[in-house]
Backbone:
C-alpha cells in the first residue's frame, strides 16, 4: 500500500459543546473553544488523512503539536479542521493545520503523527506497567 505524499489532506469537524470549552478545563468563566480542544481537532484531521494508508496492525500516534489559537468560538458553532501533509520523514508525517468556525479562521499550526506497529507499541506500554522494584 502506498503511503501519503505531500499535499494529501484530512478533515475533522465538530459542533462546539460544553466539554470542548475552556471553562470545562478549569478556566472559569471562559465559555469558548479551549486550546486543548484545538489540539484534539488537529489529531482528528491528521488521523483522517492517515487512515487510508494504514496497514493491518498499524496505529498512528501524535508526536508533536504546535497550536496558535487566534479567535474565540462560542458553544453551538461548528468548527472544521483541515490538515495538509507538508513532509514525510520515515514513519513521521508533518501536517499544516487550520481550523475555521462558521465565521472565520480560529486556529492554525502543525501536527506530527507517526505510524507504528501496534503490537510493538502495546509491548512497550505493557513493559512500562510492570512494577518497578526499588
Residues:
Amino acid at each position: 500500500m502506498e503511503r501519503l505524499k505531500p499535499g494529501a489532506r484530512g478533515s475533522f469537524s465538530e459542533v462546539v459543546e460544553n466539554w470542548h470549552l475552556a471553562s470545562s478545563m478549569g478556566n472559569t468563566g471562559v465559555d469558548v473553544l479551549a486550546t486543548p480542544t484545538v489540539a484534539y481537532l488537529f489529531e482528528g484531521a491528521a488521523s483522517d488523512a492517515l487512515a487510508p494508508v494504514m496497514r493491518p496492525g498499524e496505529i498512528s500516534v501524535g508526536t508533536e503539536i504546535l497550536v496558535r489559537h487566534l479567535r474565540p468560538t462560542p458553544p453551538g458553532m461548528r468548527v472544521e479542521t483541515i490538515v495538509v501533509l507538508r513532509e514525510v520523514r520515515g514513519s513521521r508525517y508533518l501536517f499544516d493545520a487550520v481550523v475555521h468556525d462558521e465565521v472565520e479562521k480560529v486556529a492554525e499550526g502543525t501536527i506530527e503523527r507517526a505510524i507504528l506497529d501496534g503490537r510493538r507499541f502495546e509491548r512497550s506500554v505493557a513493559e512500562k506497567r510492570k512494577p518497578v522494584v526499588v
Observations:
- The chain is about 20% helix and 40% strand.
- The chain has a mean pLDDT of 95.
- The helical segments are 35-50, 118-129.
